[in-house]
Amino acid sequence: MAQILAPSIQWQVGVTKNSFYARPITAKFLDSLLLNQKGKVSARGSSKFRVSAIKSENSTINRLENLLNLDVTPYTDKIIAEYIWIGGSGIDLRSKSKTISKPVQHPSELTKWNYDGSSTGQAPGEDSEVILYPQSIFRDPFRGGNNILVICDSYTPAGEPIPTNKRHRAANIFSNQKVIDEVPWYGIEQEYTLLQPNVKWPLGWPVGGYPGPQGPYYCGAGADKSFGRDISDAHYKACLYAGINISGTNGEVMPGQWEYQVGPSVGIEAGDHIWCSRYILERITEQAGVVLSLDPKPIEGDWNGAGCHTNFSTKSMREDGGFEVIKKAILNLSLRHKEHISAYGEGNERRLTGKHETANINTFSWGVANRGCSVRVGRETEKQGKGYLEDRRPASNMDPYVVTSLLAETTILWEPTLEAEALAAQKLALNV
Question: Under the GO molecular function aspect, what terms does this record hold (predicted)?
């Protein structure tokens, strides 16, 4: 990811009655993104999952799309808020819709809501009520109008965060004055894999077979190199519409795999934006009839895994003399390597093998411009003597609330003993 230059403090998106009338993402909108052509017949998706439908004026599909595109703003002040939360696995996203009496500008204007936690693996059947607390709002690219997406976290009726609520602890860390003063910036590189439905095999791959070896697919173009670009582009535009601080996207090394970048984001905003961007991606792949996978190693063998590299800097790192602060942060990270690895995603041991641009999961290392290290520092950071570091260990299915807050805690709040610091410094000196 390019060097982090400036933050965009956008932890929620203000939404007013006349603030936007952009087109929502419907099947018709996806058609225009996928093919950008006019006519009576439209095809959606790549050649591997192409679906055609006759578009006559009186067809059932056309009548349904007319209702989906219906602009209700001239007739009512009411809007639809899609409450989104993280389910019991810690990676699955759930949501349900609520009618709100008027447009809102801040999460505090929204009421708390509840859901059946016994159906999401988050509460027993005899006491299943879980309470949703609205935390951040985004424009809804699917419904358009003044409708919103609402990122929530989950609590017991007594007000205690449930075990899968990782946002609560992260918010406590980011509200620490020492952390606030350091203005932590994050740039997160979310990799993902698109799978063919039913067979759960990567998009563009022959069913039960393999494409040519890796090499031509990374940032490639062409029907034999790029699979799922329409989904990536639709997601890119939808995130911009929503107010997510998405900064770029590209095809990845393994065919059928893509990446997008979110940031620079400040503090808790980073987690909110990643979770909302994941929700939007889930919805777009749902419409396209493709399965989204965040598995860190979806295909075993000589294929790249999927990570969520996290670029990180503090105010002290970005100022003159910041390279020494970066090296001190790396030292702290080396001393808490096991704690970080245990929190950096399920199945990460299948990805962090020391091959395919990864470091071995059991050994901490760092280097300048070395993508085979646990932590990479860019050449420009070394040259300028200030900048940021890239933690390459997080898996694609990591919880961004956990990773971002743990980086802040380890590098800003945690202090190792002098003895441990001296030993770690000796070991790291041998790695450079």
Answer: ATP binding; glutamine synthetase activity
